[in-house]
Amino acid sequence: MITDRATDQATRQLIERCRESANAPLPREVRTRARHCVLDHLACSLTGAQLDHVQPNFLAMAPFGGTPEATTADGLLRPAFCAAYLNGESANALDYDDTLAGHPGAPVVAAALAAGERAEATLDDLLKGVVVGYEAHWLLGRAARPSDSRAGKVRAVGVFDAIAASLAAAAVTDASAQRLGRVVGLAGTQSCVPYVAKWYERPVPTVKNNLGWSAASAVLAVDLADSGAVGLPDVLDGPAGFWLMAGSDRWRWDETLAETVEPAIIRAGFKRFPACWHVQQYLTALESVLRRAPEGRTVRHIRIDGPLDLQKFAEPRIDGPADVAFGIRTLSALLAGGVEPGPAWVRPDLIASTSALAREVTVSRTRRRAVTVTFDDGQVQHGPVPKADSARPHPFGLTESEVRAKFDRLVSPLLGADPARALRESVIDADGSLKLSKLTEAMRR
Q1: Which residues sit opposite 375 in a β-bridge?
Q2: Which of 41, 234, 259, 396 is 20 to 30 A from 68 via CA?
Q3: Cβ-based neighbour number of residue 369 at 10 Å
């Protein structure tokens, strides 16, 4: 087991790092990236809320009464706790949300937006909270990243999300060290247990990472702290710190703190396809091959070459909508069949219509990473698959202009072209003094 000698300072150092980030002016690049993280979250949340397998979440929250405080992705006003849960769960439903040591956007933005709208906070307040949340999410997830052998047994995806999201929600309104400390200690008690060798088993549960709870429990942690509740004062520290509770066999806090020079949000990657990040580059390579093919050709066979870890995604059976994001055969068939990436990728009829092609997708274990497509006329085209950097996925995902295009493509059919444009312009271009309640007006219907 590997630990840093200075583990008794991690809680204090995290709080101080977040406090400094929240109280310092945001550099232009960071502010712009945070705006796009919010926009991408809204695109994924608004889209996810329309999916059949997400509806049980809204039905389960229906009996929860209380003051209407924050806007949910179905266009209603609900208590902030409920809004954080529903928006966080909806954002992750298609596995189309951003990535960096997990899925930071779904819990962080959902919690910060719900808490901020309730408090009549501004867009500037939200952006600061989001930057703080991404920073905490990265530092904790990176420092506690387990060894490969341990990760195969316990996968701590989402375990740190409640802490990161709680810091984001708190920073929107009051980023004093004392308050952040209380919130962190309480958020640790609300965190989900790690997955134990269940991460890639089928069927994938529709709640998947349970990021809705991470967002909701973050709002709860803030409310508990503000009501006088007391949690663990040093939850991250010592040989029995939260990293151990998260199932890891490593805690490299000092190393991670020292190497994280730029704001973590700059590292985050935006997804091109509604699929697990581990298969994004294979789909990107396949898309490139298909675009090079002369018009009129149809695909006869697809071969995907990759290392051992790709085999986790080679299961041909699809047992439910959440399975699709982890099935590279079905994903490849949908892409090759011309189905637009988005909610259509979990439609049973479209999955069925491409099932014959999915059976013609071969996944081979090799050292090289490549995609080979054989067309109906016998022509064969190849595409190399670059290995994405999991510690800096941004260069391998969508650009900011492509994020805006993704938002328009997904949200315009839901809200209408004019409300969708108004929402995008509010997030990307509006002055930071804009009230969040004004920003979310376009979501209400």
Answers
A1: 299
A2: 41
A3: 18
Q: Please state, in angstroms and rounded to a whole number, the distance separating the CA atoms of residues 167 and 27.
A: 20
What would the pLDDT profile of 270-316 be if each residue is shown by its tens digit?
A: 999 999 999 999 999 999 999 999 888 999 999 999 999 899 899 89
pTM: 0.96
Q: How far apart are CA 151 and CA 308, in angstroms?
A: 15
Tokens representing 14?
């995290």
pLDDT computed for residue 244 by the predictor: 87
Model confidence at 199, pLDDT cuts 50, 70, 90, reads low
CA proximity to 95, closest of 356, 359, 346: 346
Instruction: Look at the alpha carbons of 325, 326, 327, 332 in this order and tell me if their dihedral is positive or negative.
Output: positive
pLDDT digits (tens, 9 = 90+) for 45-75: 999 999 999 999 999 999 988 899 999 999 9
With a CB cutoff of 8 Å and minimum separation 6, the contacts of 192 are 158, 159, 161, 162, 210, 213, 214
Confidence check: pLDDT of 434 > 90: yes
DSSP codes, 200-257: TPSSPPTTTT-HHHHHHHHHHHHHHHHTT----TTTT-STTSHHHHTT-SEE-HHHHH
CA distance 214 to 268: 19
Smallest Cα–Cα separation from 312: which of 390, 156, 202?
202
Q: Tokens 């199932």 identify what position?
A: 247
